[in-house]
Amino acid sequence: LLGLQTTKIGQYIHYEESVHSTQKIAHRIAQEGAKEGTVVVAEEQTAGRGRLDRAWYSPKYTGAWMSIILRPSIPPQQAPQLTLLSAVAVVQAIQEVTNLSPDIKWPNDVLLNGKKLVGILTEMQADFDRIHSVIIGIGINVNQQETDFNEQIKHIATSLRIEKGEEINRAALMQAFFLKLETLYEEYLKNGFGLIKVLWETYAISIGKRIIARTMTANIEGFAKGITDEGVLLIEDDEGVIHRIHSADIELSAK
Ligand code: BTN
């Protein structure tokens, strides 16, 4: 990449035309000893993966499909913080390159006008007390047009091109993202999660609003107070009970 201003992220780029999933390749090369900051990028994924075993639609030449290898010296329980950090970095990069202002939806969606623009999937290779690598998978819908989305996802997904009304330079967007990610990651390693958490909460749509969290076992409705240092969502219900939500799909409440 020309003009890359980072010293770590994106210094090594493993580029492929077509892959099953960049996550899979990143896991393999991380195991083989790939350096921190190595990025796997593909033009197309034929089996892109999302959270909760969902598929991630990744057509050719339209998106930024990438997986970034990090090797932080942090306890494995703190790895989810890197998902939140990545969401902040991607929002900042999109703002810089397109002037659009996406929102973050807990835990790891980035939305524009209520539709999904970016997905983030963080996975790690770790022993119980030591991280070998964290693989951050990011999919940004960049240049898809409405007709590129199938019936199922066209109501819930969007792209930068659709929202902005013009084509976006994918390389420029990735470069901006690498720089934001590196800056935030260095801040995080030096000073911890504090600043990242504040930034995340300012971009998050749900915080300070009434929401419904659909977990595996129950629907919890109440006021989204914020997140903890571990990225756990705190919801206060109408009885004043605080619920700690580790995993759920959330939506704004109509009430
Ligand atoms: C989600 O919203 O559920 C997460 C989607 C993550 C998609 C990205 S695209 C690059 C990387 N490779 C994958 O197979 N998935 C992630």
TrEMBL record:
EC code: 6.3.4.15
Keyword annotations of the record: ATP-binding, Biotin, DNA-binding, Ligase, Nucleotide-binding, Repressor, Transcription, Transcription regulation
Domain BPL/LPL catalytic: 1-189
Positions annotated to bind biotin: 45, 49-51, 116
A cellular-component GO term for this protein: cytoplasm
Domain of life: Bacteria
Described function: Acts both as a biotin--[acetyl-CoA-carboxylase] ligase and a repressor.
Family indicated by similarity: Belongs to the biotin--protein ligase family.
Name of protein: Bifunctional ligase/repressor BirA
Organism: Priestia aryabhattai (Bacillus aryabhattai)
Covered range of the whole protein: 74 to 328 of 329
